[in-house]
Amino acid sequence: MSAHIPVLVKETIEALAVQPGGRYIDCTLGGGGHAAAILEQSSPGGQLLGIDADPEAIKIAKAKLQAYSGSTLLINENFVNLQAICIKYDFHPVHSILFDLGLSSLQLNNNSRGFSFQHDAPLDMRLSPSQEITAADIINISSEAELAHIIKTYGEEAYSHQIARHIVQERSIETTLQLVQTIERAVGGRRGRIHPATRTFQALRIAVNHELEHLEVALKQAINLLGFEGRLVVISYNSLEDRIVKQLMQRESKDCICPPGIPTCICGHTACLRLINKRVITPSPTEVQLNPRSRSAKLRAAERIIAQDESYKMAEKLSFLAEGKANGWRRPALLRKLRMAFSLS
Ligand SMILES: C[S@@+](CC[C@H](N)C(=O)[O-])C[C@H]1O[C@@H](n2cnc3c(N)ncnc32)[C@H](O)[C@@H]1O
After folding, report:
1. What pTM was computed for the model?
2. CA of 51 relative to ligand 1 center, distance in Å
3. Which of 13, 101, 125, 331 could crosslink 208 through cysteines, CB 3.0-4.6 Å?
């Protein structure tokens, strides 16, 4: 299996402003390429929390980062739980946080995962085997209208209705090859620059893994985990992801987000970020030539300009409640702990 080649490595390290002794989070560990570069640049004394939803990725990254085992904490979790992970492992505030979204080549090239329309495999597409719903479940259970909606919204596919109709007529569909053939029949002889199954596969993957919802939640948590002047860096690979990143960074870098035309500000919003790069950073032609999978990469970065806020501290305190329940604390003990937590600040 060919290794994953990390994209925009130099630009990422620069945008993260990696310094010796810093504390970093890689929310999408993958093959550990960016993580290795962060650890190298932050040595001596750097620390890295690496997260990946895919247990296979954790295994591969652990082997790659063995030389840094004393400075790394690798967690097999979904980044939607970023804040809870950081609180659990007391890993906050941090200097910078990286999201390198999407899939690694290791996942795309794995013949059993069903992510690629280029290999025949069961229609799975789950990042983690602990998830319940597979792509085959969505394909075989959803109504025609639901399928058309998923393919249109998450794949931006112009032929979503034709594809959904063919899927419903031809199911049950259990493998990637069956799905590719169904899509080819649905779109007839029409051929664009990309394979006719590209957009439907993207849509299914996003739906199976709730990618956009999780990204939105995790980015907000990430902003709150950064210390003053901490950096948030996101590399996205499709316009849906990039729109979420761009809109959140733009919104959080403005002092007022009132709708246009309101004479005086009523929103009370204050900027907590400063955009590092006004224009999105993309790979050079040389990088694209060396690593064609980098061609759609877009890097955006922002810096936190205020200290951590009270809502973050509150979340930390409220975690006592969850912990208390999990440990079966009795009410008086729980109340004592809560009182202690609140009187600390
Ligand atoms: C493009 S790869 C990252 C490659 C990595 N930067 C490197 O240099 O090798 C994206 C990784 O993010 C992981 N991932 C995607 N969504 C995730 C999520 N919601 N939570 C945790 N990991 C996720 C995938 O499993 C995959 O391993």
Report:
1. 0.89
2. 8
3. 125
